[in-house]
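Reopening this ticket.

The earlier resolution said the output was attached, but the attachment link was broken on my side. Pasting everything inline this time so it's all in one place.
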Amino acid sequence: MPRPADATLPAGARAQAVYRALRRAIIEQALRAGTKLPEDAIGERFGVSRTLVREALTRLAIEGLVDIVPNRGATVALPTLEEARDAFEVRRGLERLMMELLAGRLSAEQRATLQAHIAREDEARARGGPESIRLAGEFHLLLAQMSGNALLERYIGEVSSRCALILSVYGRPHSPECAISEHRQILAALENGDAARAAALMDAHLQAVADRAVLTGAQAADIRTLLAPFAEREGLAPSRPPGRKARP
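Inline output:
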């Protein structure tokens, strides 16, 4: 079992681990929009102080994944339909630019990395579950990293996270096989140096994702239970054994 994070990691690394775990829980839809994020429960589950939890929540709020209201605490952000449309419109513009920067410029190593990632998407699709959602988003983040434009990479990372949250609220189930085939087509156009085709394919791909937006239900569960697998991945352990209640 992982040891408590307070005993094994410096403060900066602990805050980063909490941020990654919470972000992944939101992206993989374990934490739905509107879910309350109490600092004490999160800190208990991850074995860290409320100060470090607050630091992670603040960073997520900057990315638009969390809403923080003074004297009321934090919740997973609940974007409106208008905000959803705006986010996808901005993302489509950014990723069209990304296609123009990458077409015909991918190195052999970068092509191999993208091909391997698509293969992982195929494997995740066969298993089912939220991993396929995360990998689909990471394909776009990989492309952004390869663009060589740090500002574009940052903006695409933030808007992609926001869109993943939007889909957890308004998205309806779809076949990941469709997205994987579209990723293959986009990569082929980039390898062929066809910027116009790559941009058109990416635009159609993102529009298809946006078109799948319908209202879905919310969920209610103890946040410590929801965060358990994400804590384990980051080596974060609860400050007291799971199931043991705090003293009155």
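Reporter confirms the inline version is readable. The CA atoms of residues 10 and 105 lie 40 Å apart. The radius of gyration is 19 Å.
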